[in-house]
Amino acid sequence: MNETTDLKNKSRQAILTAAMWLLTVVLGVVTFFAGRRVLLNTYTRFFPGNLATDSRDGLSLMNILASFPMAILVIAIVIGGFELHFRKAGTQESRWIFAYTLAVEAGFLLLALYL
């Protein structure tokens, strides 16, 4: 009887941990696109030019320069979050890590909303 209860608790913890990690991944990808949009919009505000001809090369370069480090950051969040969440599954520390990650990603999304 006790073994089945432990198995149910472990499976619930694994499902909750996977759901938290998946939410972190989805928010990381959304944050990537929102952050890139903010950087590109800021670039076009400071260097408007004629977007049809003059600043197309600059806009492409800015897109590459913004996307590469942000993509590395999202990949680090995905891999690091996976390892941390599943290594510390079911503990209070896992929930705190999730809460901090969620707060940072929500902060970036709110920042993108207001910029």
Biggest pleated sheet: none
Specify the helix fraction band.
over 70%
- Uncertain runs are none
* Secondary structure tally, helices: 3
Number of strands: 0
Strand content: under 5%
Structural class: mainly alpha
Structure description:
Helix content is 87%, strand content 0%. With 115 residues, it is mainly alpha-helical. The termini are far apart.
Short description:
The protein is an all-alpha fold and 115 residues long. The chain is built from 3 helices and no strands.
SSE layout and pairings?
Layout: H1 2-46, H2 56-87, H3 92-114
Which features characterize this protein?
single chain; mainly alpha; 3 helices; elongated
